[in-house]
Amino acid sequence: MTARSKRVGAALVVTGLVASGLAAVPAGAHQRDHGYAAEIRRASYGVPHITARSFADLGFGVGYAQAEDNLCVIAETAVTVNGERSRWFGASGPTDPNVRSDLFYRKAVEDRAVERLLAGRRDGVHAPTDDVRDLVRGFAAGYNSYLRRVGAAKLSDPACRGRGWVRPLTELDVWRTTWASMVRAGSAAVLDGIVAAAPPTATGPAAAQDAPGAAAVLAAADGAPAGVGSNAYGLGEAATATRGGMVLANPHFPWDGAERFYRMHLKVPGRYDVEGAALIGDPIVEIGHNRTLAWSHTVSTARRFVWHRLALVPGDPTSYYVDGRPRKMTTRTVTVQVRGPKGDLVPVRRTFHDTHYGPVVVVPGTFDWTATTAYAITDVNATNNRAFDGWLQMGRASTVRELKRVLDHYQFLPWVNVIAADARGEALYADHSVIPRVTDALAATCIPAAFRPLYTSSGQAVLDGSRSACALGADRDAAVPGIFGPADLPVRFRTDYVTNSNDSYWLANPEAPLEGYPRIIGDERTPRSLRTRLGLDQVRQRLAGTDGLPGRGFTAERLWQTVFGNRVYGGELVRDDLVALCTGRPTATASDGTTVDVRDACAALKRWDLHADLDSRGAHVFIEFAVESGLRFADAFSAADPVRTPRRLDTTDPRVLTALADAVRNLAGIPLDARLGDIQTEPRGDRRIPIHGGRAEAGIFNMIVSTRSPGVGYPKVVHGSSFVMAVELGPNGPSGRQILTYSQSTDPNSPWYGDQTALYSRKGWDTIKYTEAQINADPNLRTYRVGEGRHH
């Protein structure tokens, strides 16, 4: 035990917690002001196993443990969702990203968006249940308890030690953080366009502020939020050696900031018992397993909002027609405080305009606000208050069939698919997320002709806002109006396997494609990404026993070896064609017209082992080539053979050699035959930890996106593989492997700041620790109790 651990353990207050076991508060009993108590058992790598007798107590334990490890992250997130970044972190001007963020979130605060979502019948659909409210209340109390005990001035993390923005957390802070996650792929994705929206002046359209985020969303091929993705397998009895279910969780999320995962095991005896991970600041496991069921999430392609084209009243650009009758927009002027270079606070104001559909948004050049037309969006997750209840009930389900019933009832997943398997050996894929109800009939009738190509190509629906018949409507089986009900969502049960790697639902299992769904959910019979194709190929080879590993079918060990095999599928397909092309062409023309010698790059590619392992030499050359759009195929995609097509490099396309030349230019000063582990690293203190894996554009399953530093390499991971779990469900409970690639804590003075990162570097793992035997077998187990007395 470290000295710091002893000090923390000695300072804790115990309130009626019995070490040998905790009696649960009966279901339905709402805990009010009795005080808090929880047991925390820290296992290897700092992973907390938290046991409590009620959900309020459990939340307290989670909040305390997360504050021990990541208080600065939680505190900064509270600043963000309350619209105070500019006040504390400054801004370069009124269009600075901090200012735009503050205006957006401050408007939500002043609109009382969260308070309105908490009002209503506490059934988990209309409003959160008492259990979930207790969990959130306890989380805030646990965080605050740790902050009080240590004091902001004595925090071990220099990122926020003694900073004025570190303050006690409120329940509303937690709920606002959750709301921000819900709208991540909706209104928050176009917040620039919401902030920039202003009516035209008498002399013409208003000068639009920068709206880069809104423009990027418009250009995106699907509705996935920027910077996140995932792989997942759900393996049934026909795909595993033990005939039980298995799940691979491999989310690709940022390695820094508020979207980091946090490993934990949470238990209220008799009521909830789940191991896995959640985003920092969330009090419930979001990806994980219980005794007989495991699940993961991947980012879905479905769109989360729709546009409404508004016909404006002549002479009044803030009024619009619906069925021939004018309606007035509502306005709210929001003020945020911006810290100037001298430390003084300067107010910045912005007036927002809302319609009954939602906020007005501008994307300059496409969705402009003119004297005759404006555009508003409906974000169907802006009223999604069901997520914590949904995840709570997911954790209580015992089979994938029960899980499907939870999904049907709560319809809470904001922008992700679910991939699951159970101990009986059945697997499930479902894009059971919150999706605007744009049926084929509605699209045919209500999308103006000018916007139909946009809908066909990307799933973005622009509806005629002047007709009430073009509103989203309601499905009888939907949890709330405006979204698709369960009967209209893609779902597949299998006893062999289901997968997803961020393409649409279509090929969750190629033997049984999912087809016939509205375009807003995703595309069908179109080319899949190289990462999707590799994911499917890996399963097929494992089942056939042709991947070079022993036997057939998956075990936890074989699944781990598959994920971290670091095959580069694009290289397998085209490397030889590329080498043949560049061998005869010692020079190539770069995009800027300069001539580049590609002989050394060609030689490095010829010797490359077609992997993205630490020892792989030349992998970075191919990755840069792929990122530069060098993977141009000569053969056509075939919907009849979607996993294997296309597969031949178009050596007649001059852009192929141009991409290679650009790759060489990008790598100036970096040896073209360098080991990947020597140039792709992650800093932890004074260490540089070698990192394997690479970009999805090259067809790498173990996705790692790193910043390129000229003449140096890739010294910092931006996002990629994060929480990785290979869990096997059997008669004796769950077993398997797991890791958090960037480690449990963001505090550089924590013992858990880089330990799992070093473990990931050597393809190691931590074991699943769910049963008491598994937990107690951990040689590093440390138990302590946290609590507070009765509140008055």
From TrEMBL:
<keyword id="KW-0732">Signal</keyword>
<dbReference type="InterPro" id="IPR043147">
    <property type="entry name" value="Penicillin_amidase_A-knob"/>
</dbReference>
<dbReference type="InterPro" id="IPR029055">
    <property type="entry name" value="Ntn_hydrolases_N"/>
</dbReference>
<keyword id="KW-0865">Zymogen</keyword>
<dbReference type="InterPro" id="IPR043146">
    <property type="entry name" value="Penicillin_amidase_N_B-knob"/>
</dbReference>
<dbReference type="GO" id="GO:0017000">
    <property type="term" value="P:antibiotic biosynthetic process"/>
</dbReference>
<dbReference type="Pfam" id="PF01804">
    <property type="entry name" value="Penicil_amidase"/>
</dbReference>
<protein>
    <submittedName>
        <fullName>Acylase</fullName>
    </submittedName>
</protein>
<keyword id="KW-0378">Hydrolase</keyword>
<comment type="similarity">
    <text>Belongs to the peptidase S45 family.</text>
</comment>
<dbReference type="InterPro" id="IPR023343">
    <property type="entry name" value="Penicillin_amidase_dom1"/>
</dbReference>
<dbReference type="GO" id="GO:0016811">
    <property type="term" value="F:hydrolase activity, acting on carbon-nitrogen (but not peptide) bonds, in linear amides"/>
</dbReference>
<feature type="signal peptide">
    <location>
        <begin position="1"/>
        <end position="23"/>
    </location>
</feature>
<dbReference type="InterPro" id="IPR002692">
    <property type="entry name" value="S45"/>
</dbReference>
